[in-house]
Automatic annotation (TrEMBL):
PROSITE patterns: KH_TYPE_1
Keyword Transmembrane helix found: no
Location of the protein in the cell: Cytoplasm
Entries under InterPro entries matching the protein: KH_dom-like_a/b, KH_sf_prok-type, KhpA
Provenance organism: Olsenella absiana
Coiled-coil blocks: none
Protein name, entry field: RNA-binding protein KhpA
Family assignment from sequence similarity: Belongs to the KhpA RNA-binding protein family.
Amino acid sequence: MVDEEALDDASEEMPSDKVADLVEYIVCGLVDDEDAVSLDVTDGEEGSLIEVSCAEEDAGRIIGRRGRTIKAIRTLARALGQRVGTSVEVEVLG
């Protein structure tokens, strides 16, 4: 017999998944090589870490001049994270 309640719990999204979806949507709009973009989400007690991996030539587009673009992405991610109840950090790996 299948425990339906356990299945519902397993299929629920983590709050950090919503934030990761937003970050992925923004990043894919910025880069040339969308296939090279991947996100690694690590959930911990203090919050979530989203590591964005991309092609080396696209890392500069994500970071932006003087870090303005990544700062804006982090601001949006933190705002959504606060709304869904989690602390979020975003890092770019070239």
